[in-house]
Amino acid sequence: MNYSPGLTGGKVGCHDAPAMGAPRQGRGGGWRKSGIRAAFVALTALAFVVGQQSPARADDPLQEALRKKDELERAVQNSRANTERYKTVASQYQAAVDAAYSRIADLSTQKEAAQSQADALALEIQIRQEQLALVSFQLDETKALAESLKAQAAAQQQQLASREDLYAKHLRTTYRLAMVSPLEMLLSSKSLTEFAERVQALIFVNRQDTQLANDIKALRVDTAQKLDDAAAKAKEIVGLQTQIDDQKKSLSQQKNEYDRLVAEMKSNIAQQGSVAAQAQSDRNGALVAANKANNETAVLNQRLEQAEALYAQLAAEQAARSGLGAFTGAKLPLWPLTGPITSGFGARWGGFHNGLDIAAPMYTPIRAAAAGQVVTVGKPYLAYGDTATVVIIAHGYNFSTLYGHLDDRVKVPVVRVGQMVGAGQVIAYVGMTGWTTGPHLHFMTIVNGRAVDPRPYLP
Q: What are the distances in angstroms from CA 236 to CA 128, 146, 232, 243, 330?
């Protein structure tokens, strides 16, 4: 991995320092002893220089704080990963809940439609039942009328037979009387009174025969009509019975369909209700887990960002050693990078963010926000687990700017420690070194040893 030298121009971090070897024990000439002494002196001097370049001594509280910071970074990373996983699971459960409720809404709409259909079906069933009762009543009435017509026809047939018998007797009597002339009737009568009675009887019989003939004719016609009516009613009874049977069959089918619709809607809604309840329970569990993980992340992040305040300490120490005068400017000439601010200065995730995160594509040039002296380039805390590549520029002994997460693979920082840079000069490129979820620049302003909000200093 290529990167520029460390804080004061030498190699970065104490981990790069060569291990000191013990002097070889053995016999030899003076030249060999002199060489050993020279090597020892050189190694001692080199260790001293490297020790000066290291960000903190082994027994320095800063080193212990950085070690804890590394542990916190890993803990925060795991905690945030857990939080994201729980959130993802909660989102999946929420999607299941939404789908279940959506299905319930659809089923409720279908239920309303089915209920309307069932209500209409129930009304139709009621109408059919009333029609069936009416047709059954008509059937009973028609049967009674048919029986009455049959009875009347039978009585008339008996009456017709009696009239026809009487008419036949009258015909025989009339025929016999017709064989006797009026003169013979007169001569054979004992008196005029008897003759008159016999003539009167003959006239009466003729009249009665005429009446009988008319009655017989009317009875025949009426009886035939009643028999026809009775036959028609019999056919009507068959038709009504068929209609009743069809209506009963249709009514049974409609009742079965009604029962099926109601049962199906109840079953579907009950099933989806169970699905929704389970999904809601799962979602609540995931949210509880996510909330717990989020709280843990907030606590760890707060401790982490307290540890990240060491950046400000480092920048202040290097600025104090720069030999520059006091920074008296009110504003920085320009922004180091153009892009959206994804995280501002201040409270974040239960902790505190000590700079501005400015997003930009990988390898976007980063410029010095003001003229100054480069006091740090590289990974000043690599020995303690912090892999972020940074550049720190002192603009005075009391004011510095820090540029973090710089690329160190494709486009390494283009400045070196001790170099003077002008405002707007390219110093590095956007990367993803250190702990980050995407390419961006972590930009800090350090005033009098304390990280402050960069916004008031930016144009």
A: 19, 10, 6, 10, 111
Domain with CATH 1.10.287 in the chain: 91-293
Read off the pLDDT of residues 165-183 as tens digits, 9 standing for 90 and up: 776 776 677 666 666 666 6
Distances (CA, A) of 266 to 104, 115, 199, 448: 11, 11, 97, 73
Side-chain-side CA neighbours of 359 within 13 Å: the count stands at 8
Task: Round to the nearest angstrom and report the end-to-end CA distance of the chain.
Answer: 35
- Architecture of the domain spanning 91-293: Orthogonal Bundle (1.10)
Please name which of 272, 264, 277, 260 lies closest in space to residue 106, comparing C-alpha atoms.
Answer: 272
Tens of pLDDT, residue by residue over 288-306, are 877 776 777 666 665 556 5
- Residue 56: pLDDT band by 50, 70, 90 thresholds? very low
pLDDT for residue 132: 76
Question: How far is 151 from 138, CA to CA, in rounded Å?
Answer: 19
Classify 442 as helix, strand or coil. strand
| 179-188, 272-281, 418-427 — most confident range | 418-427
In the chain, where does the domain assigned CATH 2.70.70.10 lie? 14-47+309-457
Q: How far is CA 28 from CA 25, 37, 128, in A?
A: 10, 13, 127
Q: Which CATH number fits domain 14-47+309-457: 3.40.50.10860, 3.40.50.720, 2.70.70.10, 2.60.40.1120?
A: 2.70.70.10
